[in-house]
Specification:
Elements: E1 5-9, H1 14-25, E2 29-34, H2 39-46, E3 50-53, H3 59-66, E4 69-73, E5 80-84, H4 97-110, E6 115-120, E7 140-141, H5 155-167, E8 176-179, H6 187-198, E9 203-204, H7 209-218, H8 223-237, H9 247-252, H10 259-265, H11 267-271
Parallel strand pairs: 1-2, 1-4, 2-3, 4-5, 5-6, 6-8, 7-9
């Protein structure tokens, strides 16, 4: 019998790429669904990954990518599903993006396919988001989060969690796992850690939510994305993203990486 194949969508993105690497490190067969055959797809093939070009909204392309697949990251129907949701996902949030995440989770659960949902807090990669007005690389962290706190989690750690869930789905079917980094911090403390690790000054300068909204709108971002981030910012200030746990370590056998480790690993990206 041939070894099982695991399909990873968003395979050139932060968590998908990390999931591919973790599965290949474990010697598993991986198929990556990519939007186009470019240098990023070639990098996946160098890891021994099969690549399929397609769009999630094209049923024929998705069906072809599904052929022979045992488990997948955020696609169905399969024998198991790992769905990327978000920490605030909740039913009671009327007319709010977090309800959209909750509805998506319910759709997978209602399908009858064993599904597991991961709900990460803010990614560590958020610090490197490529948006006009984002000045973190210049040493200025300008977010509308006041003194709210979270435990940043790297895409690398989420990828290892995804790989672990795909390889052993049964105990996790129907469960939702909040994912956190190891230490809860506010952005003043994050700036201090970046300063110490990278050897140049970083400072957190809080914005108001309206100021941040205007900055995103002036940058030409999609209105739905802007509304989503505005809602997330309010959730953040309300403490929805706070907390930490040991789920990453329990599922993968390794502690999640710290902000300092993330900064050191991505030193070049903070200065480019």
């Amino acid at each position: 019998m041939a070894d099982p194949v695991y399909l990873i969508t968003g395979a050139t993105g932060t968590t998908g790429r990390a999931a591919v690497a973790a599965l290949r490190h474990a010697g598993k067969r991986v198929r990556a669904l990519v939007h186009k055959d470019d240098a990023r797809a070639e990098a996946l093939r160098k890891l021994g990954t099969e690549t399929v070009v397609g769009e999630m909204l094209d049923l024929d392309q998705v069906r072809a990518a599904m052929e022979g697949v045992r488990g997948a990251y955020f696609v169905y129907p399969f024998k198991s599903i790992v769905n990327m949701s978000q920490k605030p996902a909740r039913r009671e949030a009327k007319s709010h993006p977090s309800r959209d995440h909750w509805i998506t989770e319910q759709m997978f659960d209602w399908s009858g396919v064993p599904s597991t949902h991961i709900r990460p807090t803010f990614f560590a990669e958020w610090l490197l988001y490529p948006m006009d007005g984002w000045r973190v690389k210049e040493g200025v962290i300008e977010f509308p989060f006041a003194d709210g706190r979270h435990a940043p989690i790297a895409g690398e750690d989420q990828g290892r969690v995804i790989a672990a869930l795909l390889q052993g789905p049964k105990p996790h079917a129907g469960k939702a796992y909040p994912l956190y980094g190891p230490i809860e911090l506010n952005h003043h403390e994050i700036a201090e850690k970046l300063t110490k690790t990278l050897g140049r000054p970083f400072a957190y300068k809080p914005l108001t939510i309206p100021e941040f909204r205007s900055r995103m709108e002036e940058g030409g971002l999609n209105p739905r994305f802007v509304q989503h981030i505005v809602s997330v910012a309010q959730d953040y200030k309300d403490g929805i993203f706070s907390g930490t746990n040991d789920v990453v370590e329990k599922l993968t056998g390794r502690k999640p990486i710290t902000v300092e480790q993330f900064a050191e690993t991505n030193r070049a990206r903070f200065s480019s």
